[in-house]
Amino acid sequence: QLVEFGGGSVQAGGSLRLSCVASGYTYSKTCMAWFRQAPGKEREGVAYVDSNGIPRYAEPVKARFTVSKDNDKNTLHLQMNSLEPEDTATYYCAARDYCFRDYPPEDWPYWGQGTHVTVSS
Questions:
Q1: DSSP class of residue 114?
Q2: pLDDT tens-digit series, residues 9-26
Q3: Given a cut of 60, is residue 28 above it in pLDDT?
């Protein structure tokens, strides 16, 4: 089970921190990711920590977002800085057994319920 926290509304240039708490499986060996979906758009990858513990980012969020995985607390975080209106979306946490490359949304079997982020200009 995956549960996200931390969404909200901010002005452009602001920051938010999302968290995803995992339960029910071996968290330390699991690949965890953040996806987002804006109204009328397809779900897209944002960032993930691969099975070697290396963070990976989509191009639009590089240098602004930081993903981190706390194995002791079974939690995945996403620190979002310099937010832009284009970051407005529902953000989802996802998990799969392993990942050593990008995988599309349909290849992630476990999902949270999503948390909304709204960035106003």
A1: -
A2: 999 999 999 999 988 766
A3: no
Question: Is 103 within 8 Å of 14 (Cβ atoms)?
Answer: no
Q: Assign 85 to helix, strand or coil.
A: helix
Structure tokens, 28:
């330390």
Provide the token pair at 9. Answer: 């509304």
Q: How far apart are CA 96 and CA 66, in angstroms?
A: 20
Q: Give the residue from 38, 70, 74 showing the smallest Cα distance to 53.
A: 70
Q: How far apart are CA 82 and CA 108, in angstroms?
A: 28
Q: Which of 34, 23, 14, 42 is nearest to 99 (CA)?
A: 34
Q: Kindly state the average pLDDT of the residues 65-88.
A: 94
Tokens of 71: 């194995």
Beta strands (DSSP E) in the chain are 2-5, 8-11, 16-22, 31-37, 44-49, 55-57, 65-70, 75-80, 89-96, 110-111, 115-120
Taking alpha carbons only, the member of 43, 57, 36, 45 closest to residue 116 is 36
Q: Record the tokens describing residue 45, joined without a space.
A: 């990858």
